Amino acid sequence: MQFNNPKILDLLDTDVSFGHSNGWIQNLDDFKKDFSSGKVEYKEISQIEVSEMKKFKNTFSIRRKIKVKGFYKKQEFEMNLSLLEIWIKKKSLWKLWSRQSVEIKP
């Protein structure tokens, strides 16, 4: 994501769901369209903290905090986010199935 590399798509499950801090929800087709159009361009993504990791069978959840900088529709943004990600293992590969973010206000 940080380098806007299309290989990020290889990590996503076909049924992926992104819940953004502004209430915006994306499925895989929405994400592909927005990613290729440059609607969102990430300049920096840095991990601040991992607060929880849990695994159950072929499911893995992770709670973490990140700092994000970039552009949304050419408008600059910077924010800290708290994320919950759910990963599932399919054919020996881990795929992102769901991700929800919440903005951390200072």
Report on the architecture of this protein.
The chain contains 1 helix and 6 strands; from the N terminus they run E-E-H-E-E-E-E. It has 106 residues and is mainly β. A 6-stranded mixed beta sheet has the order 2-1-6-5-4-3, with helices on one face. The chain has one helix spanning 28-37, and strands spanning 12-19, 25-27, 40-56, 59-72, 75-90, 93-104.
Secondary-structure map with pairings?
Elements (H helix, E strand, L loop, with lengths): L11 E8 L5 E3 H10 L2 E17 L2 E14 L2 E16 L2 E12 L2
Parallel strand pairs: 1-6
Antiparallel strand pairs: 1-2, 3-4, 4-5, 5-6
Q: In which order are the strands of the major sheet placed?
A: 2-1-6-5-4-3
Pattern of helices and strands: EEHEEEE
Question: What is the arithmetic mean of pLDDT?
Answer: 91
Number of distinct helices = 1
The chain-level structural class is mainly beta
Helix content: under 10%
Rg over CA atoms, rounded to whole Å, is 14 Å
Query: β content, as a range?
Result: over 45%
Please provide the count of β strands: 6
Shape: globular
Largest pleated sheet: 6 strands, mixed
Return residue spans where pLDDT drops below 50 for at least 5 consecutive residues: none
